[in-house]
Amino acid sequence: MLEQLTEAINSTGLLNLTPGNIVMWAIAFVLMYLAIKKGIEPLLLVPISFGIFAANFPLTGLMDEGGLFYMFFHNGIQNELIPPLIFLGLGAMTDFGPCIANPKTILLGAAAQLGVYGAFFTALLFGFSVPEAATIGIIGGADGPTTIYLSANLAPHLMGAVSVAAYSYMALVPLIIPPVARLLTTPKERAMVMKQMRPVSKGEKVIFPILATIVIVILVPKSAPLMAMFMLGNLFMESGVVQRLTDVSRNELMNIVTIFLGVGVGATMSAENFLRPQTIYIFILGVLAFAFAVAGGILIAKLMNLFSKNKVNPLIGAAGVSAVPMSARVVHTLGSQANPQNYLLMHAMGPNVAGVIGTAVAAGAFISAIH
Questions:
Q1: What CA–CA distance (Å, rounded) separates 238 from 151?
Q2: Quick one: pLDDT at residue 2?
Q3: How many CB atoms lie within 10 A of CB 259?
Q4: Burial class (CB in 10 A: 0-12, 13-18, 19+), 203
């Protein structure tokens, strides 16, 4: 009888619960609080936090081969299915009109990727391997699906930490961009009013995703999974003839894959994987990456103004990070504070959506060079 009782107790999780599991529960509860109470990226942080919580119960087998969360992670993320589907939905919600109307704003989206490469080299100095440094650097693009996609290819063991860092900093855009932008611009520059953008025809909007796919995928073939789906979603929307596909891409499908993505990412954050000094370094480097990205976009905008007749407000360079449309809104707010007549939102959307492309291209370049 005593032996049976001992076996019954041992079959529960009580005796196998570790301090690390409890710490991870605390982290999960903090993320839940931020998502539910503070509204910080709730669509991702709620499933991520619950994935962390559930995966840190002992003896569940959730992340063992064949387990429920393992299937989410292996089939959806490790096999690179879910991030491209997220990009399909993003494409169906993205208006490339500002990029088409003012093509040089695409350069500002590219310039913001300086943060990615700055953090990459800094991570190497911290002792991370090349694949790990690339995965950490991509946080500077402030694009969660791209971060997850790259980590699945290069450093799966860092996926939980870099994903939480990326989504956390996306939510902290209103706190990170303003001090960097104010440091690098004068009040006169922030008050600069830009000329109204020209109207963009439907034909231009339909042709753009096709041409963009040709140019980007030929130059960086490894970006094809993300870019092809991103541009397909955009073509759905701009063609105007497949409204049902557009609606499904940006609503039902997006919501479903977001659940699987969040739970799958959270489930990778076991105590053994997450509670390491590396995790602290990743969060520090993530902040640096984001700050470098904001600075890169602003400085390139100022450089462009030295050689251009049609000046741009340097603030819009800060929107080159991929947090769409939050960074564009923050830039607009900064401009209107400097000059109430300043309306920068649509101008900032150009580098903002270009930043999504730039980050995906940077991820493809890393995979080509390292994999």
A1: 31
A2: 64
A3: 16
A4: exposed
Distance between CA atoms of residues 186 and 164, nearest Å: 34
Query: The tokens of 40 are what?
Result: 């910080």
Give tens-digit pLDDT for 267-291.
999 998 888 888 888 988 888 888 8
How far apart, in whole angstroms, are the C-alpha atoms of residue 204 and residue 151?
35
CA dihedral 197, 198, 202, 208 (to 10 degrees): -70
CB 81 within 8 A of CB 261: no
Element (H, E) at 204: helix 202-219
* Whole-angstrom distance, CA of residue 339 vs CA of residue 353: 24
The half-sphere exposure of 281 on its side-chain side, counting CA atoms within 13 A, is: 18
Rounded to whole angstroms, how far apart are CA atoms 161 and 212? 32
Using one digit for the tens of pLDDT, what is the confidence trace for 246-265? 999 999 999 999 999 999 98
Residue 258 exposure: Cα atoms within 13 Å on the Cβ side: 19
The gap from C-alpha 45 to its chain's centroid, in whole angstroms, comes to 13
| Residue 40 DSSP symbol | S
Question: What whole-number distance in Å separates Cα of residue 141 and Cα of residue 162?
Answer: 12
- Copy the structure tokens of residue 186: 């004068």
102 token code pair: 């003012």
Cis status, amide bond into 325, omega within 30 of 0: yes
Distance of CA 195 to the CA centre of its chain: 30
Name the pLDDT band for 39 (thresholds 50, 70, 90). confident
Helix (H) or strand (E) holding 74: none
CA dist 275 and 153 (Å) reads 22
Task: Return the H-helix or E-strand segment holding 220.
Answer: none
Opening angle at CA 162, ends 52 and 262, nearest 5: 40
pTM to 2 decimals?
A: 0.89
Q: Determine contact, residues 336/191, Cβ cutoff 8 Å.
A: no
Of 368, 7, 314, which Cα lies nearest the Cα of 185?
Answer: 314
Buried b vs exposed e over 294-327: b needs ≥16 C-beta within 10 Å?
bbbbbbbbbebbeeeeebbbbbbbbbbbbbbbbb
Q: Which pair of structure tokens corresponds to residue 268?
A: 């990778």
